[in-house]
Amino acid sequence: MPRRKRFRKIVAPPSFDGYKPYGASINSKQSIEFFYEEYEAMRLADYDMLNHQEAAELMGVSRATFARIYETARRKIAKAFVESLEIVTVYGNAWMENAWYSCASCQAKFTLPENNVKQLCPLCGSKSFELLNVIQNE
After folding, report:
1. What is the mean pLDDT of residues 3-20?
2. Could you give the CA distance from residue 101 to residue 111 in angstroms, rounded to a whole number?
3. Does residue 107 share a domain with residue 46?
4. Chain segment 99-126, per-residue pLDDT in tens
5. Are residues 100 and 131 in the same domain?
6. Rounded CA gap, 27 and 8, in Å?
7. Domain assignment of residue 109, given as a range
8. Which ranges in the chain belong to alpha helices (H)?
9. What total of structural domains would you count in the chain?
10. How far apart are CA 106 and CA 109, in angstroms?
């Protein structure tokens, strides 16, 4: 029986729900599921320019596990580019320290300060938003 996967810590959810290829003549209903932890690995390694050890520590996984997550993310993006497939972000096996919400009106993703008594979307002022994640303590 394999070990249970540990949750991977991410700082914030991606600011997008997915990507679609532009100008592709293929009308495939197939898409690539890009997990939040894969997005976080790409962000830490390629955008923030951290080495794998530093990024692994931030995500709360081993360096080898980080390398596997990063490799999977790269392969998924390559497949989506080559085969003109849509990329869809999926929560996956991740957790966030803070509560993140998604506004139903403007699709913004945000956190609310603890002293915010109004409980409104900071972008559009809507009261219609939902919790994206379950908060876990380490």
Report:
1. 83
2. 6
3. no
4. 778 788 887 777 776 666 667 887 788 8
5. yes
6. 34
7. 96-138
8. 36-42, 52-59, 63-83
9. 2
10. 9
Query: Do 103 and 85 belong to one domain?
Result: no
Q: Between helices 63-83 and 52-59, what is the axis angle to 10°?
A: 100
14 Cβ neighbours under 8 A, 6+ residues apart? 36, 39, 89
Angle at 39 between CA 33 and CA 43, to 5 degrees: 160
Alpha-carbon gap, residue 131 to 90, rounded angstroms: 14
Question: Does residue 101 share a domain with residue 87?
Answer: no
Sign of the alpha-carbon dihedral angle for 24, 85, 77, 17:
positive
Residue with tokens 């700082």: 11
Identify whether residues 9 and 66 lie together within a single domain.
yes
Nearest Cα to Cα of residue 73 among 45, 96, 101, 50? 45
Count the Cβ atoms, other than its own, within 10 Å of residue 81. Answer: 13
Tokens of 35: 């997990």
CA nearest neighbour of 6 among 29, 37, 32:
37
Q: Are 8 and 73 within one domain?
A: yes
- Would you state the pLDDT for residue 58? 93
Residues 102 and 130 placed together within one structural domain of the fold: yes
